[in-house]
Amino acid sequence: MKKIISLLILLGLGLSAQEQIPAGAGEEILKKIDANRVIDKAVSVSTMIIHSRSGTRTIKSKVWSEGNEKALVEFLAPPREKGKKMLKLGKQLWIYTPEPNDRIITISGHLLRQSVMGSDLSYEDMMESDMLAQDYRAIVRGKEKYNNRECWVLELTARHEDVAYYSRKLWVDTERYLPLKEERYARSGKLLKKAEIHEVFPVDDRWYPKHMTFKDMLVRGEGTEFIIESIDFGVAIPDYLFTKAALRK
Amino acid sequence: MVILKLAFRNITHAGLRTWLNVFILSFAFVLIIWVQGLYEGMQRQVIRDMQAIEVGGGQFWQRNYDPYDPLTLDDAHAALSSELQHLVQNGNATLVLIVPAAIFPEGRVQSVILRGIDPNQKIVSLPSQELTNKVSPGVIPAVIGSRMAKSANLAKDEIVTVRWRDANGVFDAAEIQIVAIFNTHIQTVDVSQIWVPLQRLQEMVHMPGEATYVILKQGLNNIPPGSPDWIYRDYDFLFADINNIVKSKRAGSSIFFIILMAMALLAVFDTQVLAIFRRRKEMGTLMALGMTRRWVISLFTLEGSLQGLLAILVGAVYGIPFLAFQTKVGISMPQAVEQGGFNLGATLYPVYSFKLFLLTTLFLFISVVIVSFLPTRRISKLKPTDALRGKTT
User: Fold this and answer.
1) Is there a single domain that holds both residue B225 and residue B79?
2) Pick from B74, B111, B163: CB nearest A186
């Protein structure tokens, strides 16, 4: 869930970002995106609608996050998922299942490949680095209209050998510098994941995605929708929330 | 010799009572050997199949490899030591590389293990040569077991997408084509396993020359010592699970044997008690004729023991043809019957060793001697005069 929020935050840019980015300066666009994603502390409430082969499920959650390294997610609904928690600390991830199990599981190895609550997002997606400029070289391929918004089309190629997605393609709003659409590719060039923003909203001095879809392109289904209901920045979050002990509280 | 003749005459004159005891004892005798033979056959069959298709003549494991801990798989790969490379080059070993992955049959995700193996290897009986079949450019040939085919709903020549992460953690994906589906009783090479050409897999994950484990040729004599990266796993280690499963099943079945033997021995015991009660005058006469109490005790013990001996002989008369028939024809097992974690195949062939016969025979005979002797202890207190009058003290 932290990744979901990060992804949404990743797509948020300043309301005042009006300047033109010259063609070929793709990396400058990435730096802007990264700069706008940096947050100190935030608390958000969101809804995840999973459109799977077997039907549609809606999951509501609350997220406390600090930078990109720390996040605590508490699932609020439906009753079956209520009370479950997820804690991310750097490269480590734990899931807590409340009574009657009352169990904390470390998510690592093959478990990272599994889906988060049956969504199109895997745990390893949640663990990916969000710093695009650090991980990718970008080339601006031109301009395209997407959802009636003028967008730069960026092709990203991994700078290092250890970046999860070898290449990405972004459609970045030329006015708001918001990546309205993103495609993530395997080294072989096969499309693996796709993210689209359908609606944005202003919060303080930033634009944030209100409604977006994340789709695993290898899995049949309509993808997973994420809807941010509220987000507050700069709120005080006690340190103990980002500890394993907090999972049982 | 007199005592033996007398004992034999007495039990044959007892007629039906003796033969009922003999029959129930022989039934227990044959049944114990039959069931123990089944377990022996089960154990040998699974071990033989595992040796043929998976284990070979033993294995070397990369030090991080633990098949029961999927968390180790990402780090369980290394280049071969010079000794192991030498074995592979001489055709005495083949290497296998394991990579966790996911396939997407019919648009659903399924976790699998990609196993790279040399298509030309002759060390194990996997149909790896099928991996040389031609497929479309860019498509990876793959061989799977029938259980994997069923669980993923994949048929021969079908193409499915596979996604994996290379040595650096970078996602990659490609199409694999199922060029062959094989049948095996050994689930560990079948369930959730996809076999692909070794070199192709090494290229896919950027691990040139690396492997997760090395399978040795069966009967290989000069097994090189292990190294910090490569640990030798012998049969005791590799078959520990199978041996433990069979051991626990044998222990479970021993309860059944104990009940059966208890019933049979109770019949012998009861016969002895009844005989001692009914034959008091005979005992008194024998003592009056100068036979010692010890001699009389020996006579009655011998009579009971002879029943055990007869049971072994009678059991041999109908048991040997029955067990021989079973060894030859085997026992048909329903397809895919799970037997404590492993499949036995279509037919289970029992195995009866000399040790099994000897131990079971000794066990039965000694048990009969003991229960034959126990009731006769009363004779040691018997006074000949009382016995002649039909009294016991």
Assistant:
1) yes
2) B163
